[in-house]
Structure formats: C-alpha cells, structure tokens
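Private note to self, pasted from the team thread so I don't lose it. Backbone tokens:
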C-alpha cells in the first residue's frame, strides 16, 4: 500500500496575492506551474490515497477551495485533507469540508478507511484549528483584525473530538492507524534557525522549541497527550504540517512526522510505502525543479527546514494484528515542558 502525504499547498486563485516570504520565497505567481507539477508528480507515484495536512487554501476563500478540489481531482487519486488555520478565514469553509465527507455541519474530524486485501488502514483526521480568544471563548473562524491585534492566542481541540478519537483508537486497535493534523502535536527540542519566517533578520542561533506544540491550548493539549500515550501501540504515525518544515520526532513511542509546504522550498511531498509490518517514508520533489530554484535564497541559511537525512528517509517496523507494537525509538516518556 502506498500513500502520499503533502502539506500546506495554500491553493489560491492565480494572481490574487503577490509572492511573499516565509522560510523562502512563496511563489503565488507560479501557482499554475506548481499545480500542474503537483498533478504530474502524484500521478507518476500512483498512490492509493493522498493525505493533505491542512492549509489546503491560502486564504480560506470558496474559490480557492474549489480550485484546490479541481487540482486534486485531476490527480485521479482519492484524496483527503485536514483543516488548517489558513482554511478558517472564511466561515463557510468548514461547511464545505463537512459536505465533502458527508459530516455534520462544522464537524471537520473524520475517519477515512482504506482496505488493501485483508489489511485495513485508518486515517483519523483531526481538526486542531479552533481558535482560543483572549476572552476565553473558543471560536471556529479567524478574524484577521482580531488576530493581528493579538486577541487570538492559541489553537484548541474540543472534548467531543477527543472522546471520538479515544473511541476510534480503541475500535481500530488491530488496524493500521494514522493520525492527520494540521498543527503538529510535538516539535523538536531545538532547531538552528537562519532567518525567521517573513523577516530578513539573520539569526544563526539555536532556538529552543518545546516538546509539545505551545500553539495548542494547554488543557486540551494535555488531554490529547493522555489519549496518544494510552493508544501508542495502535498509532503508527502522526502526520502534520503548518510549520513548513520536514522533521520527524519520536515521543511516547509514536513517530510524529511533519511535512514541509508546497508553496515554497523545498516543494516536496512524502511517499509512504507500507508492506507487512514495515513502513518506509521517503521524500520526493515535485517534477518541476524551477519551483525550487525560483523560491530558494541561499543567504537565508534555512536549509535546515528540509530536514536531516533521518527526517527525510526513514523506516518503522511494527507487528500486524493483535498485540501490535511499533518498533520506534523514544519509548521512554518525554514530558512536555511547554509554557
Ligand atoms: Fe501553511
Ligand atoms: Fe498553518
């Protein structure tokens, strides 16, 4: 069984926004070339399903969402997506995604099942992009003005969703279970930053990150952590995006794999090949190399976002069926020390 993991395509109507800077140049002006390259690359890899880890659109607009759907449908593959923060700018987008998967209104977490012979693959797609406001309220959409004014503090995940996750993990304990989220649940401890996103400031120093994502509101992050630890023998891997960085870390015996963005360097996606009790993740560039060269700026010293060789190409082993167990490093409990 093969599936593709991609993230942060930020589908946007061509010429509706200018090129910008995140870690590298973001190439809105080359959206058509990127979309064509994405379709060709996915078709050539011929996966059973394509999984997008959110920020499906760049602006949450209905037209962008529609464009993204058209591009993904042209791959000829089944595809699914999680909700990202950029998808929540527009109040209707949750209803669109709900409609796509026949979900209740405003419910954007769901199970996607895939059968391959006698093997069952479960993708539990989570919605971690509800917004916690300074006044304590939790709301479904971003208000850009309020966000820029510092009124929106964190992401949150509601208790209904956590209960559902716990139940699904219990139910599918003998299957191959993958979690898909936009915001990563766990980060690397330290990264060597060249320039910060959106700035020209060269730092060249280590920035300490926390082991659990500090963007997640603490209470719900703790409850999520408890569920992950409880079901760590069931969860093969947790896939995320949002940071636009390739990395993999191991916590509670679970691999957390984050995939870089398709709107800037390195314009790559992940290929997951599962056979028996073995899963290999490799990293594959889009087939148009000029996307990379147009986006790349060496002086930014941000090559680190493309990951180490271990972040880019790795393998995990697990036992199939009852009493399954993933053989991954990091089995010891690492306590989150986020603020
Ligand atoms: Fe993004
Ligand atoms: Fe994001």
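Design output:
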């Amino acid at each position: 069984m093969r599936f593709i993991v991609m993230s942060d395509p930020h589908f946007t109507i061509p010429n509706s926004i200018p090129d910008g800077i995140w870690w590298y140049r973001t190439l809105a002006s080359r959206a058509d070339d990127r979309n064509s390259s994405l379709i060709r690359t996915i078709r050539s890899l011929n996966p059973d399903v394509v999984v997008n880890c959110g920020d499906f659109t760049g602006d949450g607009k209905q037209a962008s969402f529609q464009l993204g759907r058209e591009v993904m449908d042209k791959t000829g593959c089944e595809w699914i997506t999680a909700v990202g923060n950029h998808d929540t700018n527009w109040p209707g987008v949750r209803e669109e995604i709900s409609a796509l998967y026949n979900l209740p209104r405003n419910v954007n977490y769901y199970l996607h099942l895939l059968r391959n012979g006698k093997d069952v693959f479960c993708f539990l797609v989570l919605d971690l992009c509800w917004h916690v406001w300074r006044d304590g309220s939790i709301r479904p959409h971003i208000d850009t003005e309020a966000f820029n004014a510092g009124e929106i503090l964190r992401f949150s995940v509601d208790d209904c969703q956590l209960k559902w996750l716990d139940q699904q993990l219990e139910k599918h304990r003998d299957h191959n279970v993958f979690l898909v989220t936009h915001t990563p649940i766990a980060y690397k401890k330290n990264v060597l930053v060249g320039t910060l996103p959106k700035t020209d400031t060269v730092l060249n120093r280590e920035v300490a990150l926390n082991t659990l994502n500090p963007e997640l509101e603490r209470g719900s992050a703790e409850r999520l952590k408890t569920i992950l630890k409880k079901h760590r023998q069931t969860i093969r891997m947790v896939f995320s995006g949002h940071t636009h960085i390739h990395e993999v870390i191991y916590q509670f015996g679970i691999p957390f794999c984050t995939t870089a963005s398709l709107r800037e360097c390195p314009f790559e996606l992940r290929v997951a090949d599962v056979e028996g009790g073995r899963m290999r993740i490799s990293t594959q560039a889009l087939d148009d190399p000029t996307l990379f060269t147009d986006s790349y700026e060496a002086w930014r010293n941000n090559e680190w976002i493309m990951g180490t060789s271990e972040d880019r190409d790795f393998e995990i082993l697990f036992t199939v069926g009852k009493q399954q167990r993933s053989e991954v490093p990091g089995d010891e409990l690492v306590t989150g020390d986020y603020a």
